[in-house]
Design a protein that fits this description.
Blueprint (H helix, E strand, L loop, with lengths): L5 E4 L2 E2 L11 H19 L3 E5 L1 H10 L1 H12 L3 E5 L12 H19 L5 E3 L9 H8 L3 E5 H5 L3 H7 L15 H7 L3 H8 L2 E2 L5 E5 L1 H12 L12 H18 L2 E5 L7 E2 L3 H6 L7 E2 L1 H15 L3 E3 L1 H7 L4 E2 L17 H4 L3 H24 L3 H13 L15 H24 L11 H16 L8
Parallel strand pairs: 1-9, 1-12, 2-3, 3-4, 4-5, 5-6, 6-8, 7-13
Antiparallel strand pairs: 7-8, 10-11
Organism: Victivallis lenta
GO molecular function: hydrolase activity
Family: Belongs to the glycosyl hydrolase 57 family.
Length: 460
Amino acid sequence: MPKKPRIIFMPHANIQYSQLDPARRRWVCEHSYRPLFELVRDGGYRIAFEASGRTLEVMAQEAPEVLALLRELVQSGRIEPVGSPFIHVMLANIPPEIGLDTLRHGLDAWEKYTGVRPAAGWNPECGWASFLPELYREAGFQSLVMDADSFFLSFPEIREATGLSYDVQGHSNKNHLFKIEEYIRDKPEFLRYLTNPSAAPNGLNMIFRSDCMANPMLWYLMGATEGMRSEPVSSGEIRAMLENWKSRIAASGSFIMPYAEDAEYIGTSAYFYVKQFNQARFFEPEPSSVARFRELLDTATSLGYELSTPSEVIENAGPPIENDLIEQIENGVAWHGGTAKAWANTEYSRLLDPVCRSIFDGIALLKKRTGGRKELDDALKALTSAWVSDSRWPPLPTSPGRFNVRETLDDLYRANGFLEKAMEKAGIRELRALYSPELMRTQIRCIEENLMSRKYFGEV
């Protein structure tokens, strides 16, 4: 009897989302994560679930019943945990030393809160730089979810055929990435990367997700038209898409990963109306999307797919494709046909990032001088939190929330304070040529005055 094609659904969660007021984080835990976990529990489904360590921490603090449900599902094997940085950072835009520390911190959080240390990894926004496979390998991951669209657009023939290009000021090409599928749909030399695991030169296993499947599913979850379509994406369109991919799997591999998208779209509108239409609508209740997510899972199983997880796919697929072509993926790109460098080119980043870098240099210098102290580790954690991606996103005419930027500024003050304590305890308080906490405090205050005097998108 032929094996069923496998299919992976992986919602991923980030409680530090831009425009998600900290006061509403418990609401998201209750209205998004809880119904998702209850759906998996009650329906006998199997999925993967990614969450930043900070998301798990907030669940533990504000919605412990939701965390207990996640732990139960992880322990029973119904959910495979997928690890990521403790803080939702753009790994391609920050020093690798910070990236490695926060990846390990994220794994520690999963083990602390669920009892399981993930083998599979997720790279926030799929921002790309050549050092990332080594970073994940060194942190302890066995596999990484990759962005197929960035990979395919590294081939000149696909770039030329689709007419897609990158720009650090561009938000994304999300609604145009179907052009990639149109080009590769009859080309097994490309399809095989979506239907088989592959291995980076350092041995890290990789599986690829693509917006050509995820984006229609997202629009289906939202039930939206908003002038872009005459009718919402229908269940028939989803069924036809999965049927098409079933035949492609039979010809080229063993699985697909159609949904690696934000968990918050299950139960809420999350960021959909900001991202798609520049509308100041954030995290509105969307309970019908929970039922529609169930329909996605049921449609897949009715077509003969087997719900699976990243580690299962890798274990059952045979030898992975040796893939050194990932070295051709353009430095600084990201998912949705966008770029990681876009996050570094907003006016918020241009103010915040130099201060972050100065504090990082101070940590490195004082660590070298003192041999390392607990206060310096605390400073590094606070600085990592200050580098959170969503205090820098999105670009004009929209913006992050004032509260997102406020949290980063508070983290910078905390990091600077820890450096000051480290110098005092090391007896080098007067050696201000190494680092000057007083001067840095005025630097943070300078950008604080600039950033807090602005009007933010959505403010009345």
